[in-house]
Amino acid sequence: MRRPTSTYSRSRPGFVAVVMIVVLVVLVMIALSLLRAGLAQRDETRAAERRAQAGLLAEAAIRRAVHRLESDPGYTGETWAIDARALDSADGASVRIDVERGRADPSERTIRVRADYPLDEPRRIRRTRRATVRLSGEKPARPG
To answer: Residue 143: pLDDT above 50?
Structure first.
């Protein structure tokens, strides 16, 4: 016995194909959205790493200046170029250290540092620090 065919049963395969295409388009859109969010998160994580590295370099420069001042009270600063290999990174860094003698107290030194990491302009993070130290070998100036 033959079943009667209706218009609905003949058009059904086309309807299923349209539904499948719509489902695939929605899945691709969700996947692209997740990919975009993942890339944005990766970029933010890398920027946070660069900010942390620049901050650590600035702190290290303060310690470097204090150490240099302990052995040479006449130390006035330097530009410290740091190779990428020393940072275990693909990028190098540059740190400018400036040391000024205190006006009121010659045993006092003001250290200012500016750390740039990495060196290329669009991704560069700059951190600055300032510290005042008193050298133990020099006596404070007398007022008057």
So the answer is: no
